[in-house]
Amino acid sequence: MLNSKSPKYFKVIRGDTLMTNKKTDNGLVITTLGKFEVKRDGQILSQDSSYRVWELFKYIITNRQAGIVPELALENLWPDQDYSDPRGAIRALIFRLRKSLGKDSADNKEYISFSQGCYHWNKDVDYWLDAEEFENKVQQAASLKQSNPEQGEELLFQAIELYQGEYLPESYYSQWTIPVRNYYHTLYLQLVLDLVELLEARSDSAKVISVCEQALLSHPYEEDIHRHYLQALIKEGRVKQAQNHYAYTSRKFYQELGIKPSPDLQKILQRAGTNNNEGLDLNSIQNNLKEKSDDQGAFVCEAEVFKEIYKLERRRGERLGLSVFMALVTIMDIDQKNDTSIIKPGLDRLETFLLKSLRKGDVIARWSSNQYVLMLPGLAYEQGEKVMERIKDGFNRSNHLLTMTTEIQPVLPLEAYV
Description:
By secondary structure, the protein is an alpha+beta fold. It folds into 3 domains: about 10-145 and about 155-195, Winged helix-like DNA-binding domain superfamily/Winged helix DNA-binding domain (Arc Repressor Mutant, subunit A); about 205-285, Serine Threonine Protein Phosphatase 5, Tetratricopeptide repeat; about 300-415, 2-Layer Sandwich (Alpha-Beta Plaits), CATH 3.30.70.270. It contains 14 helices and 13 strands. The chain has helices at about 50-60, 70-75, 85-100, 130-145, 150-160, 180-200, 205-220, 225-235, 240-255, 265-275, 280-290, 305-320, 340-355, 380-400, and strands at about 10-15, 15-20, 30, 35-40, 45, 110-115, 120, 125-130, 300, 325-335, 365-370, 370-375, 400-410. The strands form 4 sheets. It has a 5-stranded mixed β-sheet with strand order 9-11-12-10-13, sandwiched between helices. A 4-stranded mixed β-sheet has the order 5-4-3-8. A hairpin with a 2-residue loop joins strand 6 and strand 7. The longest helix has 24 residues, at about 180-200. The chain is elongated, with a radius of gyration of 30 Å. The termini are far apart.
């Protein structure tokens, strides 16, 4: 595997031609993915000089294909500041930057040149840039995907090792870095999917799992990666781990994004469960369906499951005349400013409170960023109102920064239960 942190010679493939990309011990080694660092002869140069000098260097190396206009560079780098002499300000920073970089040891050339009123990165100097190498490897692998998948796979593994994190993370809030960071972020996602496709073609599920686990650290909301990961876990016989991962992912999607994963992910698990249960007797099936802690209070489920339970309870109520009530519990911060720093931890406490306050046959589900919906079967309307009043009073007494409101109504019209 290529180690992006130690200069060396390594081979890359472009088309049908074997090429060598030279990284000498004397050239600049520039790291931009996951951290920013400039080294030469094992010495870190980017620790010297001022913050502004190296921000300018980042800007120049990012825009190495084009000339740098001094006025535009200052506007992008430090938009809140005015300069009476922008060219003079840039010239002073360039002077300090050149001093920090020195000259190319092979040809005694400056790393940054000046022509036609613009500063340019000198592409003829001896340097190695991780982002540039990363991009080259992804593009080379794409051209080999069909003709030479084995070589393409190796290049993709090398590219993955180069991607140590987001582009220039120290400059995360600088507007000019956003398009470039998104570009490399998207490029990394595509290479992961291409690599997984190659690995799946030769049924290497173990490597698919490893690649997906690494990718999910930086792309936790990409459903395609989750899909390949679940499929690979199931093929390796790790069905329980797949179930736990789906439950965790579903909760994370809802809490962080307010959405549910697509039904495709759930179908993967359903198919695995069906295949896993073939040939079981009824006792085995019942044991499989039992909850881990069957002595718990109310049943907690996801919103999609709650919808199905609602349909079932409504039909049963219509057929048997059983009373079923739904309730909605909403919490707000005491000042009603929708302060998520207060509401979010409060919502976790609310679930625990509801579990202790409701019966074993009741059903609860998180419905929105500050609400839970409840299913209360087998109660009279007056009983349901008393239950919700008790819950509201108990919660409000024990939470000084939050306030709860409740609503309750029958699943069927009240006359249906008379």
